[in-house]
Each structure stands twice: as C-alpha cells, then as structure tokens.
Amino acid sequence: MELNIKLAPDILFHFAGFPVSNAFFWSLVLSLFLIIFTLFVRKNLKLVPGKLQNIVELLLESGYSFVKSIAGTEKKTKRIFPLVFTMFIFTLAANLAVFIPGQSAITLARQEGFVPLFRAVMSDYSMVFVMTIITFLTTQIVAIMVHGPFGYLGKFINLKNPLQFFLGFMDLIGELAKVISLSFRLFGNIFAGEVLGTVMLFLAPFFIPLPFLFLGLLTAVVQAFVFAVLTLVFITMASEIEEDELTESASI
Fold first, then answer.
1. Neighbours of 190 (CB within 10 A)
2. Is 20 exposed, middle or buried (0-12, 13-18, 19+ CB in 10 A)?
C-alpha cells in the first residue's frame, strides 16, 4: 500500500476540451445538492414550521443578525448578506463533505491507474482562488462606488508629501496581500488537514487517527466561518467613509 498525496487534483475527464478534476466534480455535486435542498425547503414552507424548516430559519436569522451587527445598517446587510452567507454555506458544505464515510474509497479507472472520484473542494487552490477573487473584486467595486474612482485611487497615490506617498503605497500592497492571505489561509488549513488525516490513517489505522479527524472537523467549521467573516469585514470596511473624508466634505 502506497501513500498517495498530490498537491494538484486528479483529472477525471475532459468536457469540450475543459479538464474536469475530482475537486471540481465534487464542487458541482455539492452545488447541485445545495440548490435542490434549497428548492425543497422553499417548496415545503409552512405557517407552522417543522423541524427542518426551524433549523433553516434559525440558521438564516442567526446569520442575518450577525452580518447586521458588523455591517451596521439594514440597507448594507440586505446587500452583503446573500454573498457572505452563500460563501459560508458552500465552504462549510465542501469542508464537511470530506467526512462522509466511504466517499474517498470511490475511484475511477484511468490510464495512469485508479484515481479518487471525490477530493476536498477547498484543497484545490484554483477553487479557493476564484472565491477570493470574487471577494476582492466585490470589495474594490464597493469602494469605488462609495469613494468615487478618483477618490479611491487617491487613497493609494498621494503626492502631497513623501510620507503620504509611502503610506499610500503600503495601503496598495496591503490591499493586494488580501488575496494571498485570504486564499492561503483556507487552502492551507484544509489541505494540511487532509494530508494529516491521510498520513495518520496510513501509519496507524483505527483509533489513533480519531483525535486528528475531530481536529479536522473543527478546522472545517472554523475556516468556513473565518473566510465568510473576513469577506464581510473587507466589504464593510470598503463601504465606510473615513473620518478625513467626512471632514473634507463638511468643509466644502
């Protein structure tokens, strides 16, 4: 028995020339499941809710209240909540799906041998990178809408004095660093958890890997929450008008 750990996901097949990896295939299955589940709950909404409706409503209301506590206003919350909550649910479902018993044993025969049909979605950096880019672009669009194109650009390019220019340059680096820090945090934790679980199962199957599996389960929940909260914080910060801008507006 060999320990098979790969950084890149395995390619299952090609569709119209587009390579479909096992991580991407798993993300499609999960997305389809979440869509069907949402439609099922919506179709069966009742005035007197059952257990499933109660759980869904509790999750939605708790999430909405949490987003509002950070966003501040009802208007902002209604705009931010759909994106943040969708990212949280998708990331959480993707991370927890790894713990479904038997899913890793399903393989597909390829020329190079048998490859697993499913792989942890967030252990594929391309998927995490796409989600991070969505967060980054949303943040930039919100900031430009609030501050104006030239006002936002002036935050990074300030030629009033050398110190302001240096601070603006550092702000620009910090803005670009969000892509790396946000994506690497989620990808690194999930990939490391998968590798650790695989190694422990290989070295000492049965009871010894259990603590590491519980640690991986905790990481799966926490990292989904962290990614969604950081997205919420970045967008909220971009939507706020800074004190010096308010002072400048008042003096005009």
1. 25
2. middle
